[in-house]
Each structure stands twice: as C-alpha cells, then as structure tokens.
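Lab channel / #folding
Pinned by the channel admin:
"Please post every new chain as: sequence first, then the structure tokens as a reply. Keep commentary short and put observations after the output so the thread stays searchable."

First post following the new format, from NK:
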Amino acid sequence: MKLLKQFIQQETVLTAAAVLAVVSAFFVLPDAQYLGYIDLRTLAILFSLMTVMAGLRRQGFFDGLGRALLSRTHSTFQLTLVLVGLCFFGSMFITNDVSLLTFVPFTFVVLSRLGADVRRSLLVPVVCMQTIAANLGSMLTPIGNPQNLYLYGKSGMSIGGFVLLMLPYTLVSLLLLLAWAALVCRKASAALSVDELVSSSASQGDQKIILLYLVLFAVCLLSVIRVLPYGIAFAAVLVCALFADPHTLRVVDYSLLLTFVAFFIFIGNLGRIPAFSGWLQEFLTGREVLVAVLASQVTSNVPAALLLSGFTAETQALIIGTNLGGLGTLIASMASLISYRQITRELPQGKKQYFGLFTLSNLIFLALLLGVWFLLR
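Reply from TO:
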C-alpha cells in the first residue's frame, strides 16, 4: 500500500490517465477498434527524441554548452541572459523538460560561486524566469514539447507552417523576458569574473557517443518533418542505444509514453459515446483557444491537448491554446514542477517566494500573450 501511494504521488498524471482509460472501458467494451486509438507515430518519435536527449544529457553535452557560453559573461545581466537563454532557445530543440532538468541544477552550481548577496537576489527570479522561458521557447517547434509533437502530427502542417503559427508569440515572449531580465538585474547589478563561473574540473563526455547521438537527433528531425519513416528513426535509436549506451534506456521517461497510451484509449472511447462527444464538440466550436488555456490550468497542457484534439478539427487553435496554456498555474505545464522541486530541495526557505513570483509572473505573461492572440485572430 505504501508503494502504491508513493507511485500515485510520483506519477499523478499517469495514474489519472489510467483510471480514466479503465473507467471508459466499462462504457465502451474493449474491441478491435482500440488498436486504432493509438498514435504509433507520436509514440515512436517521442521515444526516439527522449532517448537521444537523455543520452546527450548523460554525456554532459548541454552542461558543456552552458559553460562555453558562460565563459563570455562579465556582468549579472549577461549571466542572467545566458542562463535564461539556455532554457528559452534550448527548449526549442531538447524539450522544455530536458531544458529545465539540465539547466536549473546548472544554475544552482553557477550562482553558488557568486557573493551571498548577489546569489540571494538572483536565484529565485532567475529560476522562475528559466521555467517560463522553457515553456515559452518550446512552443516554437514541434519537438519543443510532447503536445506539440502530437498536434503537429495530427494537423498535417509543414514544419514551416508550424513555426510561422507560433513565431509572433515566441518573439513577444523573448522581448518580455529581456525586459524582465533587465528589471531583475537592475536590482542586483555586479561585475563578474569568468573564473568564478566556469570550473575547469567539468567532466568530459565520450565524444564518439555524443557524435552518435547528434547524428541520431538529425535522423529524428528527418522523421518529424516526414522525410524518413518514423519506424526507421525508432529502430536506429533503439539499436544504437542498446549497443552503444544501454544505460540511457533506463532513464527514458516511460511514464510519459504510458500516459499517452492511456489518454489515447480514454479519448477514443469518449468519441464513441455520442451524447458526450456531441456536447463537447459543440462546446469547443469557436472557443478552442480559450478552452485549451483553461483546461491546461487544471490538467496541464499535454492531457488537455490529447483530450480536446479528439473533438475538434481546429488543431491550429489547440496548438496556440495549449502552448499559451502552459502559463498560469504550477501544473499548467508539468515541466514547471521540475523547477519547483529543485527550489524546494536546494532552497526550502525560498519556496513560498518562488511560488508567489512564479504565479504572478505566469499570469502576467499569459494575459499579455492572450492579448497578442486576440489581436492576431
């Protein structure tokens, strides 16, 4: 019982998705149509990308990139721009989750080398900014977060069309982050020594393994843009990881894949219940963006995308809504919990300050970006 309780606490979204799938199976008994619910393309590409990113992270590739950029910083403003920029631009290619898993702990290490006053004034705002930056930067590309990958595949859009759809929101987000960084650093302005920030003792990864993963990442991108069949990318990543770096396969987020499967079953079953599907389709019509934003606040944006996509053909509106919906509450994007856990572990006395600043900042960003959507629609 204790293990079950611990599992539910750690995998709340997966547990909820599994319960919904099981309950829905009582209304639509399992049959051959269940096989058609599962989007194998999304699952295969998601597994491939997660494996590649986990491998590069284990080899210290992103940590090395961060240190290289930090070697050029000479002020707290430049330092903040680098730390936030790593999350913003990195999340476009390595997902918001991996970006925060990599660069938030890196930020704690870097800021620990600064004076106590500077560290105290920067830590909470910078981590808060990084979290928002990761959620905002990830919305530009189909591989930035799981719901984008799924909705991109479902929409049939070109990669260029997807980027153009989200580009205005991304550019506005970047300007807002720059303004916020300037405001934060005005209160904690200081000159920095490069030697304070960059340690020469950083471990080097296996360069051959890193090169292999970079090649596999290119293969994954080719499958995302539909140049290569997704099965080829999946097989290449699985075989190479098995033989060259099997330990990486142990740290892939399989719970996310299982969450997708459970939601596919739940959504497929709901679509076969005429009364519910008809009501939800009618409710969504013309309100896709706002409903997606609101649903994300209580379910997070990945489940919201999976659920709502089964009941509307306006996939582009869902892309906008679920990406903007990643702002707001702490669970609007599950990636945000990564930073919160880091703060509670490394700076427990600052978690209330972080939560307050995070919530206020997210609501401001969300309101401003919804204003952009209202002007563009």
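NK: The two ends are 51 Å apart (CA to CA).
TO: also worth noting, The longest helix spans residues 159-187.
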